[in-house]
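Two proteins were folded this term; both appear here.
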Amino acid sequence: MYLIQLLLPLRGAGGGTIDAGAFATTREELVNVFKGVTAYARTPAQGVWISPQGEKQQDDVIMVEVLADEFEPAWWRDFGQTLAKRFDQEEIHIRALAAQVP
């Protein structure tokens, strides 16, 4: 089993606020595929990194998680590209962790 985490930004690349519909659509897609989703949306996390140009960048993000029996990299790569367009980003951070559920 895998715990798959996505970091979704609250603002697009141009600084504009992401429409709530983007989050609702993403939530519904994940529920339809994985039969459940958890979004940590009450307090956004702050991500900070150095861009390829050497500039410090920052995003406010929410974490979304699903549990999956298998991890299918090709599916997640395609879904990540869809999300990048939806959330006005170059890419969306997605990670998969091995998980055990008692």
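Next, the second protein.
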Amino acid sequence: MRFQVPQFIDIEDKVFGPFSFRQFVYIAGGIGIGFVLFRILPRFFAILAVIPVAIFSAALAFNFYKPTGQSFIVLLESFFKYSFGARLYIWKRKEPEAPTAKSYLPQSYRRLEMPTLGKSKLKDMTWTLDARKESGGE
């Protein structure tokens, strides 16, 4: 039995004409706030207040600005979490370690690990093959 595998699952469905439900809600919210501002404020001040609201709702709906590849709403959420969230900075003082014989060795030698002999022939053979690949042999 064959099943059709869904593709393009990261693309939202268009519900209201060319807009998805999320885009429609952002645009409708911006229009609603603009209408309320026109009813409450004098015309000149209403126009000055509606322009930023329109730009903000369009930025939410259409995602023109994606500096890190994330949508504008995710950036906005991260901004508010950082601005109003609690921050806890902890600093623990560490005493300097006493020098040991190993600390006098160069850094490249400290990272070297010597292989130990395995208990089976298979492990020894795999280690030999891995060593050849890393050294550029066969």
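DSSP finds five helices and two strands in the chain. The first strand starts at residue 14 and ends at 16. These notes refer to the second protein only.
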